[in-house]
From TrEMBL:
<keyword id="KW-1133">Transmembrane helix</keyword>
<keyword id="KW-0472">Membrane</keyword>
<dbReference type="InterPro" id="IPR013783">
    <property type="entry name" value="Ig-like_fold"/>
</dbReference>
<protein>
    <recommendedName>
        <fullName>Ig-like domain-containing protein</fullName>
    </recommendedName>
</protein>
<feature type="domain" description="Ig-like">
    <location>
        <begin position="128"/>
        <end position="222"/>
    </location>
</feature>
<feature type="transmembrane region" description="Helical">
    <location>
        <begin position="237"/>
        <end position="258"/>
    </location>
</feature>
<feature type="compositionally biased region" description="Basic and acidic residues">
    <location>
        <begin position="291"/>
        <end position="302"/>
    </location>
</feature>
<dbReference type="InterPro" id="IPR036179">
    <property type="entry name" value="Ig-like_dom_sf"/>
</dbReference>
<feature type="signal peptide">
    <location>
        <begin position="1"/>
        <end position="22"/>
    </location>
</feature>
<keyword id="KW-0732">Signal</keyword>
<keyword id="KW-0812">Transmembrane</keyword>
<dbReference type="InterPro" id="IPR003599">
    <property type="entry name" value="Ig_sub"/>
</dbReference>
<feature type="region of interest" description="Disordered">
    <location>
        <begin position="267"/>
        <end position="302"/>
    </location>
</feature>
<dbReference type="InterPro" id="IPR007110">
    <property type="entry name" value="Ig-like_dom"/>
</dbReference>
Length: 302
């Protein structure tokens, strides 16, 4: 009895000494200055730098202590090995910003829920999430969108910022690129080109020219959203119409020629038929036969 008690105490002491080496740390260290961007991914990491394995179990979120595994599949991704465990919030949504706590659990005695790997609520930072224009049917919310204008029409771009609360819209920066690679600040261009008007998250181009074609980008908090402006010249817009008119004219001409030909053919055929009809007409033949017979009869009589 005494022996087993001593053994148990010894075991616990040794265990504690062994686990004193256990150390967990979280990345980021605090979520106070980590802000998430809507619809982007965000990663929380827990690193173990002690002996052996960190024995990571599962990530949990929220006040109801539910495993992230219980959430919609694919929204979170967990990757762990002996030394670290990563929780990836793949597409950060508003609901994620409401979660009060994020933490990882381990199977290590005394470190079941390491406080270093417990993260506070993650707030959102305002960022461009889409682009709207002066036309109702033009609402772009994914990358690689484009907007089309005829030459001399004007275009309004309104950069959609979310979340909207406490946003300083004057911090929105507009830039332009011909090829989606090197962008120039459009504010510098407004002095050169007075057709461009910039007001916070709105950009207006009065009377677009073919040279205005290109990529327009709004940026806030190092997040940007880009839209391609295509400019059609007036004549180009006319080409399909002229093409259709051309095809119709050609068709009409072909039909007219064809009809004329058919008419003249018909005339020829009818005249031919008239001749043949006369030749083949049984009445005509009988009469000739009759007259033949008559002459024969006459000859006999004679
Ligand atoms: C965790 O994330 C870091 C940085 O993104 C990466 O280098 C590491 O390989 C990840 N660990 C695992 C286990 O996937």
């Amino acid at each position: 009895m005494a022996y087993s008690k001593i053994f148990l105490i010894l075991f616990t002491v040794l265990n504690s000494i062994y686990y004193l080496n256990a150390g967990y740390s979280g990345v980021p260290q605090t979520t106070a200055d980590t802000k998430a961007v809507l619809r982007r991914s965000l990663e929380l990491r827990c690193i173990y730098d002690g002996d052996g394995s960190g024995e990571f179990l599962e990530w949990y979120r929220g006040d109801d202590d539910s495993s992230v595994n219980n959430e919609k599949s694919g929204h979170y991704g967990v990757k762990s090995n002996d030394k670290e465990s990563n929780l990836t919030i793949k597409i950060f949504v508003e609901a994620d910003a409401l979660v009060k706590k994020w933490y990882v659990k381990t199977n290590k005695a005394g470190y079941e829920r390491p406080p270093e790997c417990s993260f506070d609520q993650i707030s959102l930072k305002a960022s461009p999430q889409g682009m709207e224009t002066d036309r109702d049917n033009e609402k772009l919310d994914s990358a690689h969108g484009s907007v089309r204008r005829m030459e001399d029409e004007s275009v309004d771009f309104v950069c959609h910022i979310a979340p909207k609360e406490n946003v300083d819209l004057s911090k929105v920066v507009w830039s332009y690129s011909k090829d989606d690679k090197t962008f120039v600040n459009l504010l510098d261009q407004t002095t050169v080109n007075d057709a461009i008007v910039i007001k916070d998250n709105e950009l207006r181009i009065n009377g677009v020219k073919k040279t205005d074609r290109g990529y327009y980008r709004c940026e806030l908090n190092n997040v940007h959203f880009t839209v391609l402006l295509r400019v059609k010249d007036r004549l180009a817009a006319l080409w399909p119409f002229l093409g259709i008119v051309g095809v119709v004219v050609v068709l009409v001409i072909i039909i007219l020629i064809f009809e004329k030909r058919q008419k003249s053919n018909k005339k020829n055929i009818t005249t031919d038929d008239d001749d043949q009809d006369q030749a083949n007409d049984p009445l005509v033949r009988t009469t000739t036969k009759g007259s033949d017979n008559d002459t024969k009869k006459r000859a006999i009589k004679a």
